[in-house]
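Following up on my earlier message about NDP. Here are the inputs again, as you asked, copied directly from the submission form:
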Amino acid sequence: MADHLFRALQTCEQDGRYRTNLVQRNVNELPEHDVLVDVHWSSLNYKDALSASGNKGVTRHYPHTPGIDAAGVVLSDRSGRLAPGTEVIITGYDLGMGTAGGYGERIAVPGQWVLPCPAGLALQDTMVLGTAGLTAGLCVRALLQAGLTPEQGDVLVTGASGGVGSIAVALLAQLGFRVVAMTGKTLAHDWLRSLGAAECLDRSELEAGQDKPMLAPRWAGAVDVVGGQVLAQVIKTTRYGGAIACCGLTGGAELPLTVFPFILRNVRLLGVDSVEQPLAEKAAIWDLFGGPWKLEALPAICSGIYSLDELPEQFDDILAGRIRGRVLVKVG
Ligand code: NDP
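Thanks, got it. Here's what our run produced:
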């Protein structure tokens, strides 16, 4: 294929329905940004499936190439900061939302979005982690900064079999915490234990007492990816002085709650965003994953490797919460 041509997935609107197909694109069609990257790997995130299904909160204009994560090699950098051949990763900001994303063999991005591949991680491993790993890492760091230690008691992870959840389970367990993994998938219990969970809890076990302002205290801390009623129950069952990192909404965006857990139990709710974090903050988490947080369970967290043409079949599965762990995407 000529140098300026590349393969990419493209989501288009047809008669009010959104379809994603593999197409050939031209580098000239990419935005005018400094850094041109030859993408080798990407990953599947919940947000990618939203983008590919026409969710206007994620992507406003179509045709569009999704993919909020990308790892590859610099082809050129007009600013001169990154030498051609440098291995780099890009996660978040506008990649895959308004800017053509990692499901294409080429991306053009501003230099402020680009990080050199962290020491200690292969390019492929960075995308097993991807935005989900970065988010799990930010959640765990927020809990540690709030003073959480393994001696304080159990830490709950909700949506535990998903991308953010499974990485949070593995990381917390590796750091010495007793992790309780909450999941809707009975079949995932053994796998979650193999990642380090001490105990698995069915989603339904946290449903009782939805009308009560507080419930029997159980958790010293929590990572919540589900939001909605589940997060409300987590907050109501958190022990005095506990902290909860909140990053997702797979179960809903509302939060049916009173202020009592906060003002009577000193519970702290810590919001976590991975998308607009300053690049230096992202780099700090990536360096941890390449060093002291290097995850032994990473190979087990990768549930499959898909090529660009195979990927669209996975979109419905992640939206329905049927994916276990992380899906890696082989791009170029
Ligand atoms: P995944 O789809 O990989 O995992 C989500 C998990 O949530 C599912 O596997 C399932 O786990 C659980 N789940 C799904 N539907 C429901 C439901 N209706 N009620 C309760 N639990 C449900 O997604 P990710 O891990 O990539 O992302 C998780 C969330 O975090 C998403 O909302 C995403 O948008 C958000 N996110 C936020 C970021 C940020 O920067 N704040 C960055 C990345 C993600 P199980 O079956 O085990 O319960």
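One observation from looking it over: The two ends are 12 Å apart (CA to CA). Hope that helps, and feel free to reply on this thread.
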